[in-house]
Specification:
Number of domains: 3
Structural class: alpha+beta
Number of strands: 15
Order of helices and strands: HHEHHEEEHHEEEEEEEEEEE
Strand content: 15-25%
Radius of gyration: 28 Å
Length: 320
């Protein structure tokens, strides 16, 4: 249990977007769907074919009764057979009633029903009010805002008119030559990277870039930069004698590979958050900012001040 909690806390710290778009934000990563992204998506349409990702709302849905969730229940307020035997005659106008009496035929009618269901009994979006942790939901909003009349914070209505974007369809079953993946198969980032590379697909902004610095032995520091969307990882190992653990900042530099300097400039300003050194919060170790230093000891660039939440940013203005 303790290890599971540590893993969960680690994911929350590394992946949280709280505060990224300001203290009042209720959209999360939907902020990345900009007007330019919508125009890009619209320009991709070639044949007008649609691919439905919906699930049927019926008694064969995915729910099992767990947490009180059932599959949809449909109730008729009116029906075709009821209309044919005269159940709707009471709502006819005088004109329609006279016409029916003179012809012996039914007049206008309608079909109406009621659907009762948990919102997770079919295709649906989870709003940012769906999950609580330590008494709060996304961006620090109080969990008590999500009450019996809906949520005063992070409701799904905030998404209205905003989710129109480029989609990347990853069909791992087709790629592996099977109808379906085995039940319980865990799709990893390696699976996704392999598929995207094989299909020559590219994930575009918002791409995610992460960095971690680890003290891995006497005078040895390891810097790992990852582009979590495009799927590359670059590791730099440095040996610096006499450095305190809080001085790991001296090894931060523009990474390179056999093909040259990696394209960090494409990202403009890079935001780092929840940074840790050997599992210890970077902020607790004392550095006020990170300075990039070349082989001759000359400062090349500097980040912003390291703030609360171990966050800082840097805008790359050179590639070496």
């Amino acid at each position: 249990m303790t290890n599971d909690l540590a893993v969960l806390e680690d994911y929350i710290q590394r992946c949280s977007n709280w505060g990224r778009w300001g203290p009042d934000d209720q959209l999360g990563t939907v902020n990345l769907i900009t007007p330019d992204k919508i125009r890009e998506a619209a320009a991709l349409v070639k044949v007008g074919k649609t691919i439905s990702l919906t699930m049927p709302y019926d008694e064969n849905g995915p729910q099992t009764g767990y947490l009180g969730r059932a599959n949809p229940h449909l109730y008729q307020l009116t029906s075709g057979p009821g209309y044919l035997v005269g159940e709707q005659q009471r709502v006819e106008t005088d004109t329609l009633a006279q016409w029916r009496e003179s012809t012996g035929q039914p007049t206008a009618g309608y079909y109406d029903d009621v659907l009762v269901m948990p919102t997770q009994s079919g295709t649906q979006w989870d709003a940012l009010c769906h999950f609580f942790w330590r008494g709060q939901m996304y961006n620090g909003h109080w969990a008590g805002d999500a009450g019996t009349s809906g949520s005063r914070s992070n409701g799904v209505q905030n998404y209205t008119g905003k989710i129109i974007t480029r989609g990347v369809f990853v069909d791992l079953a087709e790629y592996r030559g099977v109808d379906t993946l085995e039940p319980g198969y865990a799709i990893t980032t390696d699976d996704l990277d392999e598929y995207l590379a094989a299909k020559n697909l590219e994930i575009r902004p918002g791409d995610a870039l992460s960095a971690s610095v680890t003290f891995s032995g006497t005078d040895t520091y390891t810097l790992v930069l990852k582009n979590l969307s495009r799927g590359w990882t670059h590791t730099i190992v440095k040996h610096e004698a006499g450095l305190a653990r809080s001085s790991a900042e001296v090894i931060t530099e523009a990474p390179s590979s056999s093909s040259g300097v990696l394209p960090l400039a494409d990202f403009g300003t890079v935001l780092y958050s929840s940074c840790r050194v050997s599992g210890i919060s970077l902020r607790k170790l004392g550095p006020t900012r990170i300075v990039m230093i070349d082989a001759g000891g000359l400062a090349k660039d500097s980040t912003s001040v390291i703030g609360s939440g171990n966050k800082f940013h840097n805008t790359w203005i050179r590639s070496n």
